[in-house]
Amino acid sequence: MSEAMVLLVDNGSRQPAATLSLRSIAARLAEACGRPVHPVSLQHAQAIPPDALDGRPASVFAEFLRAQLAQGRREFVVVPLFFGASRALSAFIPQQIQILTDEFGPFTLRQADVLVPLPNGEPLLADILAAHVAQCSAQLGTEPTRVVVLDHGSPVPEVSAVRRSVSLALRDRLAARIPIDQAVMERRPGAEYDFNGPLLADELDRCAAAQPNAAVILAMLFISPGRHAGPDGDVADICREAMVRNPGLQVAISPLVGEHPLLIQILNERLRAVL
Predict the structure, then answer these.
(1) How is the chain split into domains, by residue range?
(2) Is-same-fold flag (5-112; 123-259)?
(3) What is the pLDDT of residue 196?
(4) C-alpha to C-alpha distance for 238 and 199, rounded to whole angstroms
């Protein structure tokens, strides 16, 4: 596998900041592992105008592989920039591999493990969130009354289980008296999806109802800025609206996982395990 081309793969976004973040993480991983790492999105990023990406169009999975296969490449390693085993990894990538195999013949593509393999989890990710919570506490000037671990939300129970695993590990790293809750940005309606937990707006209102002067830190289980995360995302809007509805409520949003250097250590370990 020494000649394999390494792809750092995210789900993809129509937000330029997401692709720029992916490129930054790939460059840092390349420096750590000592070999080229290609930032590639599974979907969506092709809609971003190149002018918004320093003049370089985003690379998208099927088209990127097609171009490499046409040039004679036959060995690839995918490093998923995913917390858990989403359907993008278990269904979309295999579908694309089959299509490309029908077109170009057999080739080798090995997929590294996700950031939080279950049931063992990933202690370093809890370390990242703990460091971010401490950073937010310093900015608030007070210890939080509650921490809420927030992720995108998923219809796949195994992906929601990742958030629960990280939340339990985070509990061991914070003061025992600080409650830790969980919330999501999106979930499907119906009791069968209750495993996702509450939506963020509902959870913030609940925190304020229980303690009108609550100081809440959102521990962001997001890697890169996009539609939800980042200064212009939905999360910031929801928090501002919650604080207007609940005048005593304070909400601080943690940095993103992609900003912390320990993420590169995790990714490099995943890559080395495959190589």
Answers:
(1) 5-112, 123-259
(2) yes
(3) 86
(4) 10
Q: CATH number of the domain at 123-259, please?
A: 3.40.50.1400
- Which residues, in sequence order, are bridge partners of residue 155? none
Q: Name 199's bridge partners.
A: 184
pTM of the model: 0.93
Query: Tens of pLDDT along 134-146?
Result: 999 998 888 899 9
Q: Name the DSSP letter for residue 60.
A: B
- C-alpha distances (whole Å) from 203 to each of 12, 110, 148, 189 are 27, 39, 8, 16
Domain 5-112 has CATH 1.10.357.10: no
With beta carbons less than 8 A apart as the criterion, state whether 62 and 100 touch.
yes
SS (H, E, C) 108-145: EEEECCCCCCCCCCCHHHHHHHHHHHHHHHHHHCCCCC
68 three-class SS? helix
Average pLDDT of every residue of the chain: 94
Average pLDDT over residues 42-70: 95
Pure H helices in the chain = 16-33, 61-70, 87, 93-104, 123-140, 157-171, 200-210, 234-245, 262-274
pLDDT value, residue 192:
87
Of 48-57, 97-106, 191-200, 233-242, where does mean pLDDT reach its minimum?
191-200
From CA 192, how far away is CA 224, in angstroms rounded? 29
Please give the average per-residue pLDDT across 125-133, as a whole number: 97
